[in-house]
């Protein structure tokens, strides 16, 4: 082999070896990060930090940008867990700057999210909201998100839920917690489901939905135990203890806090203060203020170092209540002032308004993107449909048209049957009323021509006998005159010739006059000019009034009544009222034949009726007829006239 060939081969092998070494080194960055995360989960904080820094140093040495992104993203989350918020914020800002430089939108969203966590812990809620919304906006830009993208979006929703809960906005906090949980369910990620449940549980506890909160707390605990996640298990015990305290199950709350205490050695810092302050709150509510104060002072000693500001205000408020219970009003006032100072800065109206505005803007943008995605899908579906065979589409259309035609024909047939049934019922009713009127006319004629004639003849005979016994004959004559007049009234009521001769208005007035007697005062009023109706319609209305008044006299036990006729153009309204004993319309509807007859007759005239009554409060019947709609042949009438 020639020397030149050997030289080229050596260079090639050296270059390949260097490439393999470089790939090995970059892979080692990720391996170091994985080891660090494993140590972090086990609670070995010092060892975890060592491996994180090793990964960061190697990525910097290799000028390996993706390695730097992975390092800064995970290391900032680690520092946050270690309550080193300022350091975590600085690393998160490095992550964001590098992501924007490399135009890596996914990592930029992680940077914004990590910055939001630090701002929230420091009590800078407005900056936290702004950063978190930017993370969500980037996430929402992804049209077809991968599992990793959805997993990140779940984190952002969960963190937004936590932020809103710190602002005491429970409804929205719970809503975003459930959104995070739904994404975890979609991904079938049980651990992520548990991390979303914690905010669900907290929101429900704050809203005093304690049964739901306890159920979700136990689910959260089971997930933590199954995955060996000490931090999750400890948080579950801590939050369950708080729920038991709110349920006033104080001993169970203390026992559960003890379970949490046993896990402190394996967990990252920042948990002990929650347990100490929680135990203090339990004793405070039990009225054992001295014991509560012991745990409060222990919690206070580490609170400012370990507690985030939104949680610090709750500790100050609890301390004020404990000191007040012990009679140490000076210390109570001091803690109350500290509580008010932080509370005002965290939960002021301006910050809350800004966060709401950011949320609305995000939701609006998200809806607009959803609409655009929908339009894009519709366009694709339309194109797909256009590629299908025309005969298939025509067949579908033909079937649809046939189905609609059959449906339409069926509806028309039903309507026709319904109309015919109504018309048949009306015809039957008209025939019934015609028969009633014919029978009334026959009865009236017999009374008038038969019984009344006989009584008149008897009166003449008695008048001729007055000379023999004037007093007795006079009394008999008066009785027969009364009987003749009563028969005449009955025949007039049965066949109201006044309708045929002098009109509807006069007939009603005469009827009311005849009903009047010392025990029953019935007044008749006519307002305006009554519209003209056909004789048959007028007779039907007369019968309606007659039946209503008959009910008044027979059943209502009334002493006073009114019949009022009002004419307004083509509209006729009739009011019939009495001061009788009244009735319950609801119970009477099912059994009252009189009301049914009344409604049937009014239906023939295409009118409407209202009946108002109550036991002991009389009865009022209001009838309204539009004469323009009345069929002139409505009802039944008689042509015979009678003279009395």
UniProtKB/TrEMBL annotation:
Coiled coil stretches, renumbered: 348-375, 414-446
Family annotation (PROSITE patterns): HIS_KIN (PS50109), TPR (PS50005)
Enzyme Commission number(s): 2.7.13.3
Keyword DNA repair listed: no
Subcellular localization(s) per the UniProt record: Cytoplasm
One of the Pfam families matching this protein, by short name: HATPase_c
Transmembrane parts of this sequence: 391-408
Ranges: TPR repeats: 109-142, 234-267
UniProt cofactor(s): [4Fe-4S] cluster
Top EC class, one word: transferase
UniProt KW keywords: 4Fe-4S, ATP-binding, Coiled coil, Cytoplasm, Iron, Iron-sulfur, Kinase, Membrane, Metal-binding, Nucleotide-binding, Phosphoprotein, TPR repeat, Transferase, Transmembrane, Transmembrane helix, Two-component regulatory system
Domain Histidine kinase, chain residue ranges per copy: 442-629
PANTHER family, per database record: NITRATE/NITRITE SENSOR PROTEIN NARX-RELATED, NITRATE_NITRITE SENSOR PROTEIN NARQ
Protein function: Member of the two-component regulatory system NreB/NreC involved in the control of dissimilatory nitrate/nitrite reduction in response to oxygen. NreB functions as a direct oxygen sensor histidine kinase which is autophosphorylated, in the absence of oxygen, probably at the conserved histidine residue, and transfers its phosphate group probably to a conserved aspartate residue of NreC. NreB/NreC activates the expression of the nitrate (narGHJI) and nitrite (nir) reductase operons, as well as the putative nitrate transporter gene narT.
Name the UniProt record assigns to this protein: Oxygen sensor histidine kinase NreB
Originating species: Parapedobacter deserti
